[in-house]
Amino acid sequence: MKARLIASIVVAGAVALGMSGCNLIAPQATLKQYDASDGVGVTVGSVAVRNAIVVSDDGETGNLVFSVANRDDRAHTVLIEIEGKEEQFQVLAEPGLTTFDGSGANDPLRIESLGVQPGAVLDVFFQYGDETGATASVPVLTGQLLEYSTLVPTPLPTDEPTEMPTPLATPTTEPTE
C-alpha cells in the first residue's frame, strides 16, 4: 500500500513536470516589449514617443506623425531632428498623451526635403531638456491604407498671381471707325 502511494505521487509529479516543463525553459513572449503597430517608439526620460511614422506618397514631402506620453507632471519641449536634414521641430508635450496627427490642435510635422522613398526608414532624433536623446528608425509609409490616407501631406498654396479681369468697354455716343 505504501509503495502504491509513493508510485502515485511520483507519477503525479512526473505528469505535472511534463505538462509545465516547457514553461520553465521557454522564453515568455508576453515579457518582450515591442511596437505593436506600424510605427516605432523611443523613450527619453519621462517622455515616451509612440507609433512614430512618416507618411509620404512621393518620397519628397512627408508628415511626421506620432504620439507623446509624458509621465511627468509638467510639460516638456521636445526637440526633434531629422538626421541628415537641416529641418528641426519643437513640440510641447503636455502631461498625459499628446498626438501630433492633425486631428486636433497639433498638426503633423511637415518634412519638406524628405528624400526617402516609402518603404524605407528615416532616422529621427528626439530629446528634451538635459535628458540624453534617442534616435528612432521611423518607417516611411504611403497613404494607401485607409487609416493613413488623411495624413498624406497636401500641396502648399502657391503665390501665383491671379488673373485680373479685363475691364468692360464703356458705351459712348460717338461712332467708332
Description:
This protein is of the alpha+beta class and about 180 residues long. The protein folds into two domains: about 30 residues, no CATH class; about 110 residues, Immunoglobulin-like. It contains one helix and nine strands. Strands 1, 2, 3, 4, 5, 6, 7, 8 and 9 form a nine-stranded mixed β-sheet that branches. The longest helix has 24 residues. The chain is elongated. The relative contact order is 0.17. The mean pLDDT is about 85.
Features:
177 residues, Immunoglobulin-like, 2 domains, 34% strand, elongated
Text of the CATH class of the largest domain? Mainly Beta
Q: Give the rounded overall mean pLDDT.
A: 85
CATH architecture title of the largest domain: Sandwich
Instruction: Write the H/E string, N to C.
Output: HEEEEEEEEE
Task: Report the uncertain regions.
Answer: none
Largest sheet: 9 strands, mixed
What is the tally of beta strands? 9
How would you sum up the global shape?
A: elongated
The proportion of residues in beta strands is 25-35%
CATH topology of the largest domain: Immunoglobulin-like
Number of helices: 1
Helix content: 10-25%
What is the domain total for the residues?
2
| Assembly category | single chain
Radius of gyration: 30 Å
Protein name: DNA modification methylase
Keywords: Signal
